[in-house]
């Protein structure tokens, strides 16, 4: 969506093939921007053949595309294979370094192994994410490119007016410390550990709240954990928001204890606003753009995260918060640069960077 909002739609228009029958958060915006949304069933394993037939029917009816860009690893090999029946240029995109070793994850890797032999081109948010999904030989080839998860850096230029307006809207006074996390409620985001960290934090910094932005399958589980710890009035569940820049500006500390990640967009956004961040060491080092972003292992006692957060916040408060959007842009994470690279790839099928 970040790319779609800024890409030159007179040159490139997006259609979306999604695994949902319900109306989703961005449907109205997509349609207003000229995009179409097509719905197919979700790939669950037992429906492999019917899913394949549905993909085949889709491309039989809709194959006037300059490129098919696949972001979901579990179905990439099927979608790409069916797109190739009509000679469509295909791109497989890896967004995560998923290092899990569960049976489910092992089966996923086996089932999706063929993608590396099918796609015409490969993108990843980091080299590590590319290796994790496609293997070293693909990453070292001339058909692979790291494409930064760009953001609209102008929207994340810190200003006190936006900070105050958002805090006023949420009913947060100037003396309250705001910890923040932006991310889907899913296992990789490690919300349970995040709540444990906040539970330690609140014991020494009682005038604090934790703001959680996002939705996901584990949201009810996290809500129950919050209530069981007596933190119901201290944790704000905000859902999906269109005002993430303001929320990040309203915050004082960003926590991101993911179990695995590629280059999380939310972290890039937080750094652009000058927000000090504590992140897990499972996140690619390429995502650490500023000195105020500190890595810690998630194997540590949550109290260690809390203690470092206090130190980082104290250090931050001793200086005026700075706008860091230009630094993030200089690191290559502006969405307009990302969009230009994609236009070139989509429209010419030449290697990005030639």
Q: Whole-Å distance between the termini?
A: 26 Å
Report the strand count: 12
Order of helices and strands: HEHEHEHEHHEHHEHEHEHEHEHEEHHH
| Broad shape | globular
- Computed over alpha carbons, the radius of gyration is 21 Å
Structural class: alpha/beta
Mean pLDDT: 91
Give an overview in words.
The chain has 354 residues and is an alpha/beta fold. 42% of the residues lie in helices and 15% in strands. It contains 16 helices and 12 strands. It has helices at residues 2-6, 27-32, 48-61, 73-84, 103-111, 115-118, 127-134, 136-139, 160-170, 191-204, 219-228, 244-250, 265-272, 302-317, 325-330, 335-348, and strands spanning 15-18, 36-39, 68-70, 90-94, 121-124, 144-146, 177-182, 208-213, 235-239, 253-256, 277-280, 293-296. A 6-stranded parallel β-sheet has the order 9-8-7-10-11-12, sandwiched between helices. Strand 8 (208-213), helix 11 (219-228) and strand 9 form a beta-alpha-beta unit. It is globular. The two termini are 26 Å apart. Mean pLDDT is 91; it is low at 350-354.
Key attributes of the depicted protein:
354 residues; alpha/beta; six-stranded parallel beta sheet; four-stranded parallel beta sheet; 16 helices; globular; disordered C terminus
SSE blueprint and pairings:
Layout (H helix, E strand, L loop, with lengths): L1 H5 L8 E4 L8 H6 L3 E4 L8 H14 L6 E3 L2 H12 L5 E5 L8 H9 L3 H4 L2 E4 L2 H8 L1 H4 L4 E3 L13 H11 L6 E6 L8 H14 L3 E6 L5 H10 L6 E5 L4 H7 L2 E4 L8 H8 L4 E4 L12 E4 L5 H16 L7 H6 L4 H14 L6
Parallel strand pairs: 1-2, 3-4, 4-5, 5-6, 7-8, 7-10, 8-9, 10-11, 11-12
Helix pairs in contact: 3-4, 9-12, 10-14
